């Protein structure tokens, strides 16, 4: 009976009603897709296009083909600004990953039940809550060669004064160290939530089999923390590639341009006070985009694999 | 004293009001964009606009004050999209991109009027591109060496007038455990000031301008001579350590605490030095000493300006405003010590009774025969300025790298000037 009614009405129903199941998800996605296309996808192609021009943002744009990329290549070959930025990006990428083991360590340390543990947890999480600008300023004062705490501490143990922000070999590491402070807190919170989901029965079973210490961590805990580790990797790698604010606050790319990364160099060339080489900035943006694309593709692929594995 | 000052100001304002010709009454809207976002300059400019408004009650004046740094990027947008009638900016090469793009109005007609032609001759060159004038200046200030007179007295030094004296002074200062000069090169431009002076004193104003406009080589013997002079100061420990980590403000305490004896800076450094507790007995000024004999002295005197955007709507009122800005009385008021505290651009204006302003005014009007430059990053194209100033900073830290730095600048010259 019910079936008969359904088929009867279905005959009269409009195309929309018939295909409702298929259309509905697209309708819900439509606003998102629209904005993503207009504000993300289209600018990507615009950037590609702009990187083939020479334009100061005011006058006529002049088509120069691949010359911006050629200039970038020569800057790379001459070990000029572009080379420094690339090199620093790699250093950032590798060093920033230290936030993951550090975050794990703190999370394991804090994953216990003592009086007031919530307070300690929030204190450890605190650096992630304050603005990157504040982090940058605090560390700039910390590193200050004349009045800073770092040199006071070094002097205590009889080591010479160190101008971290003024030394072209140390400056990038100094900034990364400042960046690790909030990033470690971020990884810590990811692992803390992950640790809540660890199955106590498996730990019990492991104990019975005689696993403890590092073996317990490596074979029992870490495999269960895989989702948390994955997210920690994603946010840390992306965070390292867009490391801009700290550099801008702490050094402004200096001394003599030795702490630039691609994102900062792009800003400097295209948008800063002495910049306005829009095409060149776009070319740098394209290079940065391609590098990021490698990671994003890898993440998407491994996520896809994981979904299928289930 | 204050009442006297007030009365004088009132009298000046009244006479200014009387002096205004009974021209056709201005109507409509006049929108003014300012980059004078610091409290004192902001109040000064708003006061000036209020006085202008009083003279033209029918005119609806709207003032927008934009943060000084943000202004530098926003100007590109608002000149093309939503132009005000009057906007502030800087003279010389800094205005060239906008002149070339046809975004500034040609105001040569104003400069032809006797009131401006006779009184503003000294800054005309800085406002001229392609034989036309593109705006009017409203203030400028001298650069030079501000030094601790008490330290000089203690060591028995006098103001140097040539390079040998300068080096002899510096050696004595270094021997007393101090640095000769404080400087903070984190934001690069302070090193540009040093290069300006060393190069203008070593090779003269004309060569300096050739270099900055791309007609001379960075690897030439002249430039190398400039750096050789610079290196003498660097090698003897003339500059404070770790200057690459400090901004110009962060370099001030070294002078206040007496760890450095002098500062090559613009006149704007005087106010913070006084605020930090240095009295006028402790603080003095001298003109940067001569280096090559026979080279005419030339000075840096950055000029801030008003322009009419080409897309302005009320250009008639805008021109009247520009006339008012440069008028002798207004120049006296806005550049006084309680205003901008700088030098008036109008030759008929009075310079405020301030030790440093008077010295600066005298230096610029009688002892700068070589010419007046704007400043390194205003005379050179922005891109070149950036690369070069970065090179200066690197040179001051690692003077042995000079050849590599100059080769880099020469490559940049080949790319930037076409």
Task: Indicate the topology.
The complex is a heterodimer of chains A (310) and B (418).
Chain A: H1 2-12, H2 15-18, H3 20-50, E1 53-54, E2 62-63, H4 67-77, H5 81-96, H6 99-110, H7 117-129, H8 132-143, H9 149-156, H10 171-196, H11 200-208, H12 213-224, H13 226-241, H14 245-250, H15 262-270, H16 278-309
Antiparallel strand pairs in A: 1-2
Helix pairs in contact in A: 3-16, 4-5, 5-10, 5-13, 5-15, 6-10, 7-10, 8-10, 10-13, 13-16, 15-16
Chain B: H1 2-19, E1 29-34, H2 39-55, E2 60-65, H3 68-80, E3 86-90, H4 96-100, H5 108-112, H6 114-117, H7 121-127, E4 128-129, E5 132-133, E6 136-140, E7 143-148, H8 149-155, H9 163-175, E8 179-181, H10 189-203, H11 205-212, H12 221-235, H13 252-256, E9 260-266, H14 270-275, E10 283-286, E11 298-300, E12 303-307, H15 315-326, H16 328-334, H17 355-366, E13 371-373, H18 376-379, H19 382-397, H20 402-416
Parallel strand pairs in B: 1-2, 1-3, 8-9, 11-13
Antiparallel strand pairs in B: 3-12, 4-5, 6-12, 7-9, 7-10
Helix pairs in contact in B: 10-11, 10-12, 10-19, 19-20
What this model shows, in words?
The complex is a heterodimer of chains A (310) and B (418). With 310 residues, chain A is an all-alpha fold. Chain A has a domain at 79-195 and 226-276: MetI-like (MetI-like fold, Orthogonal Bundle). Chain A is built from 16 helices and two strands. Chain A has helices at residues 2-12, 15-18, 20-50, 67-77, 81-96, 99-110, 117-129, 132-143, 149-156, 171-196, 200-208, 213-224, 226-241, 245-250, 262-270, 278-309; strands at residues 53-54, 62-63. In chain A, strands 1-2 form a two-stranded antiparallel ribbon. In chain B, a hairpin with a 2-residue loop joins strand 4 and strand 5. Chain B has 418 residues and is an alpha/beta fold. Chain B is 49% helix and 14% strand.
């Amino acid at each position: 009976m019910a079936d008969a009614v359904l088929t009867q009405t279905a005959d009269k129903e409009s195309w929309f009603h018939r295909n409702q199941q298929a259309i509905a998800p697209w309708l819900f996605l439509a606003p998102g897709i629209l904005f993503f296309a207009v504000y993300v996808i289209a600018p990507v192609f615009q950037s590609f296009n702009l990187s083939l021009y020479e334009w100061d943002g005011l006058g006529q744009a002049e088509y120069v083909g691949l010359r911006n990329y050629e200039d970038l290549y020569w800057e790379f070959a001459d070990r000029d600004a572009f080379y420094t930025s690339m090199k620093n990006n790699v250093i950032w990428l590798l060093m920033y990953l230290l936030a993951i083991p550090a975050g794990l360590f703190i999370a394991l340390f804090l994953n216990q039940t003592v009086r007031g543990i919530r307070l300690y947890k929030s204190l450890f999480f605190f650096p992630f809550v304050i603005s990157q600008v504040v982090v940058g300023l605090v560390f700039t004062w910390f590193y200050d060669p004349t009045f800073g705490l770092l040199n006071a501490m070094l002097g205590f143990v009889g080591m010479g004064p160190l101008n971290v922000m003024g030394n072209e070999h140390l400056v990038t590491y100094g900034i990364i160290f400042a960046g690790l402070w909030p990033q470690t807190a971020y990884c810590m919170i990811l692992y803390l939530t992950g640790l809540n989901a660890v199955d106590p029965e498996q730990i019990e079973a492991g104990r019975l089999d005689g696993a403890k210490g590092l073996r317990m961590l490596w074979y029992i805990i870490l495999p269960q923390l895989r989702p948390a580790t994955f997210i920690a990797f994603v946010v840390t790698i992306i965070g390292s590639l867009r490391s801009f604010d700290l550099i801008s606050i702490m050094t402004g790319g200096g001394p003599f341009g030795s702490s630039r990364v691609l994102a900062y160099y792009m800003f400097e060339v295209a948008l800063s006070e002495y910049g306005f080489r829009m095409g060149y900035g776009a070319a740098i943006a394209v290079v940065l985009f391609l590098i990021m694309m490698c990671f994003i593709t890898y993440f998407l692929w491994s996520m896809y694999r994981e979904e299928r594995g289930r | 004293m204050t009442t006297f000052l007030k009365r004088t100001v009132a009298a000046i304002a009244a006479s200014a009001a009387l002096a205004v010709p009974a021209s056709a009454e201005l109507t409509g809207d006049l929108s003014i964009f300012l980059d004078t976002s610091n409290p004192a300059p902001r109040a000064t400019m708003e006061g000036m606009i209020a006085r202008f408004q009083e003279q033209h009650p029918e005119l609806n004046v709207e003032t927008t004050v934009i943060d000084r740094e943000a202004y530098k990027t926003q100007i590109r947008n608002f000149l093309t999209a939503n132009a005000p009638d009057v906007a502030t900016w800087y003279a010389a090469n800094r205005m060239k991109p906008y002149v070339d793009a046809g975004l500034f109005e040609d105001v040569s007609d104003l400069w032809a009027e006797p009131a401006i032609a006779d009184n503003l001759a000294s800054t005309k060159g800085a406002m001229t591109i392609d034989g036309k004038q593109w705006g009017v200046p409203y203030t400028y200030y001298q650069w030079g060496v501000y030094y601790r007179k008490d330290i000089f007295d203690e060591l028995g030094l006098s103001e140097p007038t040539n390079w040998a004296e300068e080096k002899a002074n510096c050696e004595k200062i270094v021997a007393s455990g101090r640095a000769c000069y404080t400087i903070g090169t984190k934001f690069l431009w302070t090193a540009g000031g040093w290069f300006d002076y060393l190069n203008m004193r070593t090779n003269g104003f004309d060569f300096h301008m050739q270099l900055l406009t791309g007609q001379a080589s960075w690897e030439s013997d002249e430039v190398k001579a400039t750096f050789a002079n610079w290196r003498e100061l660097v090698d003897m420990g003339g500059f404070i350590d770790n200057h690459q980590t400090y901004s110009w403000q962060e370099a001030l305490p070294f002078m206040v605490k007496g760890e450095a004896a002098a500062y090559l800076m613009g006149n704007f450094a005087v106010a913070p030095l006084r605020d930090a507790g240095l009295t006028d007995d402790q603080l003095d000024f001298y003109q940067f000493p001569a280096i090559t004999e026979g080279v005419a002295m030339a000075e840096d005197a950055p000029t801030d300006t008003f322009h009419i955007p080409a897309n302005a709507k009320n250009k008639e009122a805008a021109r009247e405003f520009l006339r008012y800005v440069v008028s002798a009385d207004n120049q006296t008021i806005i550049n006084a010590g309680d205003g901008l505290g700088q030098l008036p651009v109008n030759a008929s204006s009075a310079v405020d009774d301030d030790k440093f302003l008077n010295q600066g005014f005298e230096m610029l009007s009688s002892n700068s025969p070589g010419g007046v430059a704007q400043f390194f990053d205003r005379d050179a194209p922005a891109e070149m300025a950036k690369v070069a100033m970065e090179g200066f900073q690197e040179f001051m830290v690692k003077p042995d790298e000079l050849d590599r730095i100059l080769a880099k600048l020469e490559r940049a010259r080949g790319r930037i000037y076409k």
